[in-house]
Amino acid sequence: MLFGTTYYAKRPFGWQTANWYYTKAYMGALMSYAIVIYKTYGPPQLNLAFLHRLIVDENVEYLLLAFFWLMMKPMVVTLLPFVVFSLFHVITYTRSTLIPAVFPGVTAEIQRVRQEERSGTVRTGLSAAGRVSKYMGDWSSKYYSPALREVGVWEVAVVGAWIVLGAVTFQTPLLAPPFYFQFLRMRYALSAPTRAAFRRVRGFLDNMLTPPSASASVPGLVTDSYIRVRDFLIKIGDVIMDPAAQQQQQQPQPQR
Fold first, then answer.
1. pLDDT grade, residue 30 (50/70/90)?
2. Distance (Å, whole) CA 95 – CA 93
3. For the range 173-180, what are the long-range contacts, defined as Cβ-Cβ under 8 Å and sequence gap of 24 or more?
4. Which site from 4, 75, 142, 186 is most exposed, i.e. has the minimal number of CB atoms within 10 Å?
């Protein structure tokens, strides 16, 4: 999937070359997610329990999303989340598999140094391979959660807006918005970072478009339209998180 970064670099040299890299990027993403899913669940099973496990697995969700983007007209904004995930996957695989395969003593070496750090008595140093592996692990631990938060905002605000505008201007298929919003619905139900991303986007838009913080130059029609859309999406979110409560509200009250 890191071919996505090459895609950006190759764009100035021609769209055909860029599209080739775009296709290869998503083919790599499909292969990566397929391998992870197979290693997790094994061969497919024809039963509802197995199907339910697949439906709620985020790797399956991103596998389907990558396939959908592969079939669509190239959209550069869709690549960023997959590039970020791929970067951390490469770091983890390199640190946990490749380096120990070449330098078998690295894992025990790092564990010994970490124990010494916790006890406050660091007596031994690390080899070059150990320093690289430890740095990769520390870097990944430090930036993984912040990266997930920013990717969530990107998926909600940037990709969502891009798809809607593309559908309105007939630049993207009309199938794209409902498919992507179904993806966001699943992510909202299953992912705390995605729910936090929606809250961050809402806070930003509230500050920009609603009184008293909104600029006086913002038309009232824009503010009213935003509030209607915002409240509608909030209701959808409430239904996603608590469908039983929504059903109870819709049930007719008994006559007295």
1. very high
2. 6
3. 173/72, 173/73, 176/72, 179/68, 180/65, 180/68
4. 142
Whose CA is closest to 33, among 7, 69, 57, 8? 57
Q: How far apart are CA 205 and CA 12, in angstroms?
A: 34
Q: Tens digits of per-residue pLDDT, 143-174?
A: 999 999 999 999 999 999 999 999 999 888 88
| Alpha-helix residue ranges (DSSP H) falling in 11-47 | 15-41
Residues 6 or more apart in contact with residue 32 via CB below 8 angstroms: 1, 86, 89
Q: What is the value of pTM for the model shown? A: 0.85
Answer whether 5's CB lies under 8 Å from 87's CB: no
Of 182, 179, 191, 154, the C-alpha closest to 78 is: 154
- Residue whose C-alpha is closest to residue 29's, from 76, 85, 101, 74: 85
